Amino acid sequence: MPLRETCCSVCDFILEYDTPRIVLIKNKKVGLINRLVQLVILSYIIGWVLIWRKGYQDFDSIVSSVIIKVKGVAFVNSSGFGERLWDSADYIIPPEVNNIINNNPIAHSSVCVLTGKCVTFNEGVKTCEVLAWCPLESQTVFPNPALLGGAENFTVLIKNNIRFPQFNFSKRNILPNISASYLKTCVFNRTKEPYCPIFRLGDIVRETGDKFQELALQGGVIGILIKWNCNLDRSASECVPQYTFQRLDNRNVDETVSPGYNFRYAKYYENSAGKETRTLIKAYGIRFEVEVFGKAGKFNIIPTMISIGSGIALLGMGTVLCDMIILHLLKKRNYYKEKKYKYVEDYERVSP
Amino acid sequence: MPLRETCCSVCDFILEYDTPRIVLIKNKKVGLINRLVQLVILSYIIGWVLIWRKGYQDFDSIVSSVIIKVKGVAFVNSSGFGERLWDSADYIIPPEVNNIINNNPIAHSSVCVLTGKCVTFNEGVKTCEVLAWCPLESQTVFPNPALLGGAENFTVLIKNNIRFPQFNFSKRNILPNISASYLKTCVFNRTKEPYCPIFRLGDIVRETGDKFQELALQGGVIGILIKWNCNLDRSASECVPQYTFQRLDNRNVDETVSPGYNFRYAKYYENSAGKETRTLIKAYGIRFEVEVFGKAGKFNIIPTMISIGSGIALLGMGTVLCDMIILHLLKKRNYYKEKKYKYVEDYERVSP
Amino acid sequence: MPLRETCCSVCDFILEYDTPRIVLIKNKKVGLINRLVQLVILSYIIGWVLIWRKGYQDFDSIVSSVIIKVKGVAFVNSSGFGERLWDSADYIIPPEVNNIINNNPIAHSSVCVLTGKCVTFNEGVKTCEVLAWCPLESQTVFPNPALLGGAENFTVLIKNNIRFPQFNFSKRNILPNISASYLKTCVFNRTKEPYCPIFRLGDIVRETGDKFQELALQGGVIGILIKWNCNLDRSASECVPQYTFQRLDNRNVDETVSPGYNFRYAKYYENSAGKETRTLIKAYGIRFEVEVFGKAGKFNIIPTMISIGSGIALLGMGTVLCDMIILHLLKKRNYYKEKKYKYVEDYERVSP
């Protein structure tokens, strides 16, 4: 026997099976507590971590691109511009940006001529010697009602293309089962048409809790939020966008500097006399921003094993708790201590 | 001895070493099964979690900025515009956006004069009483061949600057070993010049599986995807971009509403008679979108320890499995049960 | 007794408590080593993982929108344009983009007339037969000093709205305690006014280590980085933005192709003779890009339990280490081996 141990301790190590010696205590109370604790931990791991919070999944964040098309025509009769029909080429500024619509009910414009005889530096925006027919830019007056109040009925088509690069998954917000004929007539409605990618501007503003006609006066920024939370372990057809709308600027006009939303831009031309002329436009508008966010989950062995592994370790907590009860709280603690522990004295102390 | 235990049970607790008593069973089959299970779990933890999937790393997502420069001149002879040379200032709309090139072979333009006598509201885009020389916007006809078919040979220089803020790491896609002279001549080629940041538009479209001349007709959206997957535990010079190209809009023209890619914009001027005039342009174009994504990994003690910790817990699975075999499946199960378990009856039951 | 075991082994299993039998070794050295290892692991788990690195938190990444307003007027006397006042409508190109300011000290402009008699294809940008008064675009000369050197004193108001969708938390960089009157006068200062969202362009450039007047010559790209690292377990008022500024393009002019930052764009008009004319502008400018990044952490039971679970498993490492010492390194190793292990021979070998 000593020979075998010496010559082949490696074989021995491989072929031996070591398992902890267990003390089985027939005590109903403690047994019940132990099983209860184990049950709680097990249902936490299986029910909560693995099933409910999808602890078996790895997650990837979204990569997205957005294209926007606005449709709608409004008839405007203003003192500044006269009677005029405004179409999308007029009120979308700039004409083509990837995720922003500036639906601009242009409200205040002034025509200036650069005479070259500039007046002294002012803090304001009076940049040129003013000619008689050149109205100064007014700082406070904005037209009421808004010029493009009719924009309430404009519709916007949002084409959103998303990808989860880690899972090599891509999808469009125009779902595969949506036909071209459906797209030509549908309008988004939270309950009836939740997947129609065409939105009425008035509906968007109404869902944020604002009124279009009031918002159009001073302008504002509204977020069109598209959420893609996808469980890629299920069918790809269940990965659908969720649309919500949210006011992004501060609603409380009194509290903020430069309330609402407006910006200035200029159009330049030479007038018939050959002088460089510009039209300075201060546009009050509603800016619609499309924000795409979300994540996708898919089964992955690593988070699964980490969840299970740490769950197994937590199961040991039941034993720790019950050991404390048995060894310190019960009357029979000394009896149990004797059974659980095998005391080993130090060599020196034992032998003599 | 009882005195010492009483007066200094804390010292005792600190200076005692408690280790589980182990039952060593010399059974070749079970021993082998136990070692095999442990080997599988160990190689999973070390090989798969730690080495292959870099479970020892913490990850950060990318922050990126992109600048684009397009070069190329095309000679166009069209009935609408006459003979004309188009350069980047003509065909890039808008002139300067951070991550988008709208390479727009302008295809359909119509000149309208706002007479002020606007016709009644139509759903369409006929916005003004049409004069003889003002062609109505045609909804269906687009020029064939595309005006800017020559854009196939245009090149685009993409300057991409990325950062991983958590690791304080930043890099450019113009790699440090690329010289200015190389940049002046190189063109991206997947096999020969994979790190040249200058792309021929025709090459980009070809890699998506489309044909430039066909795509240019109705327009489309093409993604230039730049992937930065960096292992920051290695040399920074191994952190390089990977370029791929992908069609982002729906290729199938029949199935979609508003197929391809186009948008309208208007240029305004006063004509010589002083009337406000606009040129409405419906531009069919190829829109190139640059999407930068990726992540960086770097050694971090926390995920390392979590991986190792849950791995150790999983190692216990081997014992659980082999215990089940030994105590329930083997013929000698009662013999082993006796050895593994020490039965402790309740006080009351034992004493009488 | 055998009857009861047979008829109700499930009850038995539930009501029994099994706890490992422990060998208590009274050896000061090993006991101390064991406690030390446990102490190190415990303080790592509690101190480092849980408290310092917030291992009890789940993290969400940021969704953000940005609006920019620039204020400032500069008087310029150049040979190209004559005396002229430039305001934001002149120098911001394009007028409205969500997260970019192109503050463009326009530096080089040339007026061309498209004669229609286009010259043969050149690689360059000479796109039209040049008239006497049409200066050729010069490739190398840029004006010195920069036209809009006065832009140093321009200020930019950044309105940044962020959301952490997973935690349903949103905030603005105009903090709630900032009053409208304060906003009208404040200018960002790292030490004195770290939360004022109004920045002087000169200050921004100075913090990147560049000089505004030098940078304005050839142009450049500067990132305005807004970091939101929020601990949502604390008060929402402690979730504040941190501003930093960073040069994004390559500072070293010699090493790079197309150094600095510039772009071309054209303005089109008909001249009095009815010919289509364009002004081609090559703008050297400083491009300011706003990049928002960060993450929010909030208590979540799952990462907490995973941290604790794998920590408990790591605690077992102390026992493994000390077992190795006791069973292999100490002189008394055979004595301890005998105590720790209970050898169980195979049936066949034992019985005969």
Can you give a write-up of this model?
- 3 copies of one chain form a homotrimer.
- With 352 residues, the first copy, chain A, is an alpha+beta fold.
- The first copy, chain A, folds into 2 domains: 22-56 and 300-349, atp-gated p2x4 ion channel (Helix Hairpins, Orthogonal Bundle); 59-97 and 111-299, atp-gated p2x4 ion channel fold (Sandwich), CATH 2.60.490.
- Chain A contains 10 helices and 17 strands.
- In chain A, strands 3, 7, 12, 13 and 16 form a 5-stranded mixed β-sheet that branches.
- In chain A, helix 3 runs antiparallel to helix 8 and helix 8 (301-329) crosses helix 9 (333-340).
- The interface between A and C is large, with 87 and 66 residues.
- Strand 1 of chain B pairs antiparallel with strand 2 (22-26) of chain C.
Summarize the structure.
3 copies of one chain form a homotrimer. Chain A is α+β, with helices and mostly antiparallel strands.
Alpha carbon gap, first and last residue of chain A: 30 Å
The SS-based structural class of chain A is: alpha+beta
Write down the CATH class of the largest domain in chain A: Mainly Beta
Order of helices and strands of chain A: HHEEHEEEEHEEEEHEHHEEEEEHHEH
- Rg of chain A (C-alpha, Å): 36 Å
Total strands of chain A? 17
The largest sheet of chain A is: 5 strands, mixed
Binned, the helix content of chain A reads: 25-40%
- The dominant shape of chain A is elongated
Which residue ranges of chain A are poorly predicted, with pLDDT under 50 across at least 5 consecutive positions?
Answer: 95-107, 109-140, 348-352
- Tally of contiguous helical segments of chain A: 10
Arithmetic mean pLDDT of chain A: 72
Number of domains of chain A: 2
Biggest chain contact: B-C, 66 and 88 residues
CATH architect. name of the largest domain in chain A: Sandwich
Oligomer: homotrimer
What's the CATH topology name of the largest domain in chain A?
A: atp-gated p2x4 ion channel fold
Strand content of chain A: 25-35%
Tell me the name of the CATH homologous superfamily of the largest domain in chain A. atp-gated p2x4 ion channel domain
GO molecular function (chains A, B, C): ATP binding; extracellularly ATP-gated monoatomic cation channel activity; purinergic nucleotide receptor activity
Main location (chains A, B, C): membrane
Organism (chains A, B, C): Callorhinchus milii
Catalytic activity (chains A, B, C): Ca(2+)(in) = Ca(2+)(out); K(+)(in) = K(+)(out); Na(+)(in) = Na(+)(out)
